[in-house]
Here is the input.
Amino acid sequence: MRLMVHLLLARSPLISAAAGISAKCFASQCSEWRFTVYLDDDEIGYHHFRLRRSATGEQVESEARFKVRFLMIPVYRYEHDAREIWEGHCLQRIESNTFDNGKHLALIGQAQGADLIVTTESRQDTLSGCVMSFAYWDTRILQARKLLNPQNGEYLDVDITPMGTESIAVGERTVDARRYRLQGKDLLIDLWYSPDQQWLALQSTVESGRTLHYRRQ
Here is the structure.
């Protein structure tokens, strides 16, 4: 079980954007996405995102907490907190801290001229041009060809394919949504958006065949 969830989280950048999302959010200044996370039908935690707007750009914070149990005993814990600062659709700064069942991962990225310098505990990379993370809240990623995993710093080639329109449950409502499939190395993620481009859901199949779901609250 631990290996299965670890492989998903290490390879699939479900974590895209820092801790303590608690202050009141005013609609004119920010947007929020709050998801309950399931492994098949078992609730394992949550992932919350908040975007704040200003005259100079956007700041995105996220907080994820997962706990997988086997026979009521916790066998896997995951915590991830991150902050991203954007100008236009390009990352200017990113910070993240991840505790993967006791293992700590830290990442910092800082724009320098036309590049983004990404530093982890094991290496430093210079990424040229406009860099985007797996910012599912922003539909501009649907045109991206490379995306940055803010957990481990991998800069991944991706291919995104429209999959048509279907009805999905969001809270107590059923809504029409546009489905997209994001694929890359060891990566297969389905995303759903409303007609007005609101992120509604996420789904990915893990190595054992079980399914990870993000269901919007």
Q: What stands out?
A: Residues 2-11 form the longest helix (10 residues).
